[in-house]
Amino acid sequence: MKEKTEGVRKIWDRYKYAALVVLIGAGLLLWPGGGVDLRPSSKEPKGQEETEIRDLQKEMAEILGSMSGVGQVQVMLTVDSDGERQLAQDTQLSYSGSTAAPEDYNRRTETVLVDGGSDAVTVRTTYPTYRGALIVCEGGDRAEVRLAVTEAVAALTGLSADRITVAKWQ
Predict the structure, then answer these.
(1) Which of 158, 149, 125 is nearest to 72 (CA)?
(2) Which of 10, 60, 89, 95 is deepest in the core (most CB within 10 A)?
(3) For the CA atoms of the chain, what is the radius of gyration?
(4) pTM flag (> 0.70)
(5) Per-residue model confidence as pLDDT tens digits over 132-142
(6) Contact 128/79 with Cβ under 8 angstroms?
């Protein structure tokens, strides 16, 4: 029995610091979030993104409906990834003490607004990536209409033809 405890003690003495690091890491992983995201980007609310996609589908349906032979049309787009707007940020950093080893610092970030109003300055816009499109139209049984609609949707969304389905309206 004494040999077992000596063996355990030797292992503990050898690996106690590694075990401590593992325990601290596990504790940090389990610690609740609540951190502040300091990146200057802003995701729009989910409802607004869905509204924009619905508006795009309506506009696309109007345009496709005006094409020769298409007739009445409905459009459905599926989204692979949502778009994102990166807003311009004004960041101010103040600190006390020496620059090599500041004692305390404070960081303040504000979104840049146009003329002090409510419109934010957008630095970069990432548009949604589409997964597929379904177009149902009255002329969907004719090959030339299917080809024209497929080409138009591909041009507007960046989808390849194999991800666009054109079907006949009942």
Answers:
(1) 149
(2) 60
(3) 29
(4) no
(5) 999 999 999 99
(6) yes
